[in-house]
């Protein structure tokens, strides 16, 4: 009997140390090379946006009418545009618009959408119907057209583009949050909290919200890529930041005017947009693999 | 099933109604006075305040907003969408002119995204990890990444300028000149197809991988059925529900893409019409276009819901 006991103790002692859940998440998240590639792109882009004045070789808005539409050379790595401005410098400065608009718009949409979804799911009945029908109504209009319309109402400018995209992107968060809340509400720990006398607000914020997060974080990352595309589309249509300041979408559109002479003018910002969207999608995929093991490797 | 259809129909009507309210209100906040736009468009040099008041009266914008809304709905019920303040044409005519183009382009893109996207997804799920999977996953991942308008510009550069194979601008009606029409449609349709096709492929792959693990698929194999039967009859049918949901959402996506693609290819369809109207505060057109899109979107999501019952008998019985 005594012998058996010591053996069990030994067995336990030899068992591998438990890996903390954070470390497990990190290991899965960083496990795929493509995810690391995405993270690197995003970090580089952020650094590029922050240090734009130091990195950019030229002033992005300074016209040089002597050397317009130059092909790429040592002096101008990506050539110059129809006003002789350096494309590379404009690309570097344009990353600021891309980052600010997409990150802020996605966060606005997420905060409003999640709050609405939380309220709708928690209180149910009439409140649920009102909020979710309002979301469905917004969703009947294609997001791009809705954003264009809102931006047209508010007028141009970076702030209004952020608001327009922020509103257009609310419904997915509200829907997903509402669904999550409904599934969490059935759990025993919610009943326990109620029995323990917790207030509605406390139940919502400290018991429901944290348990709804994983899929919403994934949605948020995925939406960053969509927001980058949407911002580029708006500035391509001429809505958004005012010329001469550079934005990638408007650079594609300006380059389109001189497609035959200097195709690189619209190719370069297009490739930049694709890289960023790809990076955001890959990071989103990686996060989903880490947070939702059931779906690992299916997308 | 019948109650489900009835309930969804009522919901659809409510949704369209709510959309009319939303659109109408947003339109009233558009900057720029439509009457002044009309004056400048029609080159009336000396517009006295009386004349402007008359123009306001003509377009019915001198009345309070709720009455304007009721009048708009009344006219809608009579099939009259109002008058453009820019061209002074009837909005019915403008939309009738633009609609076929948008429907041709959008319809082709919609059908193509399904008949290309689903097989792409199936192949990559069934041949998971093989070369076919890598290629189709790559196509799908690039497809959801590339900006629609930029794909258009690349295609114009390659097939229009460098190879000179296809026309790059404008529109020819396929009913008048079949080859001319088709050749004008090829590039815009490709652009509109890329994103929804890739999204369908990704969703199909994901759903198929989920289904292929199930016991009934192993049972099907053990019964000695051939691969084709198992994939189509047993796996695909069970994987189809999320794919169809996505296909329903793609209609919105394609409409949104048309706003951009019609601008790139200079095609005067619904998308370009609505953008131009927005820039010139021509709200009679914008509200009609948005209403039209809302109806299409609501009807399509109704069809999607009904198709669930067709595909999955379990849903029919509930």
Please report the total strand number of chain B as a whole number: 0
Structural class of chain A: mainly alpha
The whole-number mean of residue pLDDT values of chain A reads 83
Q: Low-confidence spans of chain A: pLDDT under 50, at least 5 residues?
A: none
Question: Distance between termini of chain B?
Answer: 7 Å
Proportion of residues in helical segments of chain A: over 70%
Please indicate the percent range of residues of chain B in DSSP E strands (runs of 2 or more).
under 5%
- CA radius of gyration of chain B is 24 Å
Rg estimate of chain A, integer Å: 25 Å
Into which percent range does the helicity of residues of chain B fall? over 70%
Provide the succession of SSEs of chain A.
Answer: HHHHHHHHHHHHH
Indicate the structural class of chain B.
mainly alpha
Structure report:
The complex is a heterodimer of chains A (299) and B (318). Helix content of chain A is 73%, strand content 0%. With 299 residues, chain A is an all-alpha fold. The longest helix of chain A has 37 residues. Chain A is elongated and about 75 Å long. The model of chain A has no long low-confidence stretch (mean pLDDT 83). Chain B is mainly alpha-helical and 318 residues long. Helices cover 78% and strands 0% of the residues of chain B. Chain B is built from 13 helices and no strands. In chain B, helix 5 crosses helix 8. The model of chain B has no long low-confidence stretch (mean pLDDT 84). The chains are: A mainly alpha (299), B mainly alpha (318). Chains A and B meet through helix 6, helix 7, helix 11, helix 12 and helix 13 of A and helix 1, helix 7, helix 8, helix 10 and helix 11 of B.
Brief characterization of the structure:
The complex is a heterodimer of chains A (299) and B (318). With 299 residues, chain A is an all-alpha fold. In chain A, 73% of the residues lie in helices and 0% in strands.
């Amino acid at each position: 009997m005594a012998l058996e006991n010591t053996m069990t103790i030994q067995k336990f002692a030899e068992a591998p140390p438990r890996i903390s859940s954070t470390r497990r998440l990190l290991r899965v998240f960083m496990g795929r090379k493509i995810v690391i590639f995405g993270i690197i792109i995003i970090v580089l882009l952020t650094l590029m946006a922050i240090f734009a004045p130091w990195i950019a070789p030229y002033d992005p808005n300074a016209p040089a009418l002597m050397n317009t539409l130059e092909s790429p050379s040592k002096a101008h790595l990506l050539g110059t545009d129809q006003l002789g401005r350096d494309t590379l410098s404009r690309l570097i400065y344009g990353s600021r618009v891309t980052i600010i608009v997409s990150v802020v718009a996605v966060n606005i949409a997420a905060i409003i959408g999640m709050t609405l979804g939380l309220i709708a799911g928690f209180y149910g009945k009439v409140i649920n119907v009102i909020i979710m029908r309002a979301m469905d109504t917004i969703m009947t209009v294609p997001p791009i057209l809705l954003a264009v319309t809102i931006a047209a109402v508010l007028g141009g400018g970076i702030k209004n583009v952020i608001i327009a995209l922020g509103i257009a992107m609310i419904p997915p968060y509200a829907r997903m949050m509402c669904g999550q809340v409904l599934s969490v509400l059935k759990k025993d720990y919610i009943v326990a909290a109620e029995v323990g006398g917790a207030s509605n607000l406390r139940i919502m914020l400290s018991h429901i919200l944290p348990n709804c997060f994983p899929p919403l974080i994934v949605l948020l990352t995925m939406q960053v890529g969509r927001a980058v595309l949407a911002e580029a589309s708006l500035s391509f249509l001429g809505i958004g930041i005012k010329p001469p300041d550079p934005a990638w979408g408007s650079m594609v559109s300006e380059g389109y005017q001189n497609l035959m002479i200097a195709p690189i003018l619209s190719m370069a910002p297009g490739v930049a947009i694709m890289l960023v969207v790809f990076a955001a999608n890959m990071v989103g995929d990686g996060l989903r693999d880490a947070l939702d093991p059931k779906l690992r490797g299916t997308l | 099933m019948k109650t489900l259809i009835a309930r969804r129909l009522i919901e659809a009507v409510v949704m369209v109604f709510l959309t009319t309210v939303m659109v109408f209100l947003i339109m009233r906040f558009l900057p720029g006075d439509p009457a002044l736009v009309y004056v400048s468009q029609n080159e009336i040099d000396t517009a006295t305040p009386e004349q402007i008041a008359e123009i306001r009266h003509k377009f019915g914008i001198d009345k309070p907003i709720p009455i304007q809304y009721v009048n708009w709905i009344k006219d809608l019920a009579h099939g009259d969408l109002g008058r453009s303040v820019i061209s002074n044409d009837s909005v019915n005519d403008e939309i009738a002119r633009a609609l076929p183009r948008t429907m041709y382009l959008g319809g082709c893109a919609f059908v193509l995204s399904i008949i290309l996207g689903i097989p792409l997804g199936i192949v990559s799920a069934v041949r998971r990890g093989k070369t076919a999977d890598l290629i189709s996953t790559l196509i799908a991942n690039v497809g959801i990444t590339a900006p629609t308008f930029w794909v258009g510009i690349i295609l114009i550069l390659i097939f229009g300028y460098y190879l000179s194979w296809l026309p790059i601008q404008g529109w020819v009606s396929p009913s008048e000149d079949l080859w001319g029409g088709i050749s004008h449609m090829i590039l815009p349709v490709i652009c509109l197809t890329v994103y929804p096709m890739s999204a369908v492929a990704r969703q199909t792959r994901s759903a198929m991988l989920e289904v292929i693990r199930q016991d009934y698929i192993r049972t099907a194999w053990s019964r000695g059925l051939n691969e084709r039967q198992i994939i189509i009859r047993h796996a695909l049918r069970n994987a189809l529900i999320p794919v169809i949901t996505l296909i329903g959402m793609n209609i919105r996506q394609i409409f949104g893409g048309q706003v951009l693609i019609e601008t790139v290819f200079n095609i005067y369809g619904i998308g370009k019409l609505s953008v131009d109207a927005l820039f010139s505060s021509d709200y009679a057109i914008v509200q009609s276009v948005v209403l039209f899109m809302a109806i299409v979107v609501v009807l399509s999501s109704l069809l999607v819901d009904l198709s669930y019952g067709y595909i999955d008998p379990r849903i029919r019985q509930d």
